[in-house]
Specification:
5-stranded mixed beta sheet; 3 helices; 5 strands; globular
Length: 155
């Protein structure tokens, strides 16, 4: 049975996918005490394809980058649900880290990351407000436009 956070996500038109398995030597998440760290998630959509591929500031627009960041956030929440069984066990979204596949000189990464941050606030309300870092990078796995990792306080 879906908890209140999943019901809120559903009202936003968001369905959590089956979490992606790691593609290298790492685990999807690690819980230490009341903290859950979730490995970076790239911008796979519900159809299993990348929401945006390539570099921001070149082939990918800020709007498409925001959609990609939102997809990353949805994938983060799928990993959280897999780890905890229920998103209602999230006490607080503590931090998001965003990696933006950026063309040289692209400086609008924080606008792109708002796609992920906005979803956390939509899903969790004030508990979704978080600290954040956004870093422009030269490349990401599968040429994804965006990757997002997260840290959550959990019960």
């Amino acid at each position: 049975m879906a908890g209140s956070i999943e019901k809120r996500l559903s009202s936003l038109g968001v369905t959590l996918p089956t979490p992606a398995a790691p593609i290298a030597n790492y685990v999807p998440s690690v819980r230490s005490g009341n903290m859950l760290m979730v490995s970076g998630q790239i911008c796979f959509g519900a159809d299993g394809k990348l929401v945006a591929k390539g570099q921001l500031g070149a082939a990918v627009s800020i709007e498409d980058g925001q959609k990609a960041a939102r997809a990353c956030a949805i994938n983060l929440l799928a990993q959280v649900k897999s780890a905890l069984g229920d998103l209602d066990k999230v006490v607080r979204v503590v931090r998001l880290g965003g990696f933006i596949n950026s063309a040289p000189g692209f400086t609008e990464g924080p606008k792109v990351m708002n796609g992920a941050s906005d979803l956390m606030v939509e899903a969790f309300g004030d508990k979704g407000r978080h600290a954040r870092s956004t870093v422009g990078v030269a490349a990401l796995p599968a040429d994804a436009a965006v990757e997002v990792e997260g840290m959550f306080e959990v019960s």
